[in-house]
Design brief:
By secondary structure, this protein is mostly helical. The chain has a single domain (about 5-84), classed as Non-ribosomal Peptide Synthetase Peptidyl Carrier Protein, Chain A. It is about 60% helix and about 0% strand. It is built from five helices and no strands. The chain has helices spanning about 5-15, 30-35, 40-55, 65, 70-84. Helix 1 crosses helix 5. The longest helix is centred in the middle third of the chain and has 15 residues, at about 40-55. It is globular, with a radius of gyration of 12 Å.
Length: about 80
């Protein structure tokens, strides 16, 4: 089973960075502050979270605290999995 952070990184690399290996980031890098992800990218991450992990993302959950880095998104997914 692939580690959650690896799944998120793979998605970001392929779908938001389009395989551009020149973009360097770690699990704590802010997607928004770094310019890696814009508002449309956040919505793509929401769709990815819905489909890949079976999590219904509520509109109130779409915040930087939940979607602004690999670590934050992984923590959000883990919290939601425990609830559902």
């Amino acid at each position: 089973m692939m580690h959650l952070e690896n799944q998120i990184r793979d998605y970001v690399n392929q779908n938001l960075l389009f395989g551009d290996s020149r973009v360097q980031y770690d699990d704590e890098t802010s997607f928004l502050e770094s310019g890696m992800v814009d508002s449309m990218g956040v919505m793509e991450l929401v769709g990815f979270t819905n489909s890949a992990f079976g999590i219904q993302v509520e509109p109130m959950d779409i915040t930087p605290e939940n979607f602004d880095s690999v670590s934050r998104l992984a923590a959000y997914i883990r919290r939601k999995r425990k609830v559902s």
